[in-house]
Amino acid sequence: MKENKTKTIDGQDFTFFQLNPFKANRLLIKLVKIAGPALGSLANSKDVNGVQDLMDADIDAKGLLDSICEKLDEDEIEEMFKKLLSQVHCSEVGELSNESHCDTVFKGKISLMYKVVFAALEAQFGDFFGANGVFAGLKVQGSKQGK
């Protein structure tokens, strides 16, 4: 079992707990379906020779977010955010599964909400995408082994 992670973001401490594995898998599948085409285009660029290069690439965040937003409506994005935040504890208010706690922490601080959601994504799926994850050692089509 993965350990919980605590991270300070904009002066507040957040602890990230793990989702149920089946809920996490559903969310991961949805994220891959949404972000996959945009990441696939990046992976096929001449500067990317493997998954680690893809992870280290200078990603066009606006383009990736545009791609994601084109495929989702507001309700789906909100549902994904709530799922991720349901496993986050803020030291100042408690569990963010409580919507009034989210109001207290994020009202007027939407950028903080995005930072916490991205940290929750990293906490949930970092082992899947990282150097020892499922995609470790795979090469993008047409790339050469042993850089």
Written overview of the protein:
- With 147 residues, the protein is of the alpha+beta class.
- The protein is built from 6 helices and 4 strands, in the order ββααααββαα.
- Strands 1-2-3-4 form a 4-stranded antiparallel beta sheet, covered by helices on one side.
- A hairpin with a 3-residue loop joins strand 3 and strand 4.
- Helix 1 packs across helix 3.
- The chain is globular and about 40 Å long.
- Mean pLDDT is 74; it is low at 48-55 and 133-147.
Shape: globular
Beta fraction of the residues?
5-15%
| Rg, nearest Å | 17 Å
Percentage of residues in helical conformation = 40-55%
Question: Any low-confidence stretches, pLDDT <50, length ≥5?
Answer: 48-55, 133-147
- Cα-to-Cα separation, first versus last residue: 34 Å
Number of distinct beta strands: 4
Strand order of the largest sheet: 1-2-3-4
Derived from helix and strand composition plus strand pairing, the structural class reads alpha+beta
Order of helices and strands: EEHHHHEEHH
Put the structure in a nutshell.
With 147 residues, the chain is α+β, with helices and mostly antiparallel strands. The chain is 54% helix and 10% strand.
What order do the helices and strands come in, and which of them pair?
Blueprint lengths: L4 E5 L2 E5 L4 H23 L7 H6 L4 H11 L2 H12 L2 E3 L3 E2 L3 H8 L3 H20 L18
Helix pairs in contact: 1-3
Protein traits:
alpha+beta; 6 helices; 54% helix
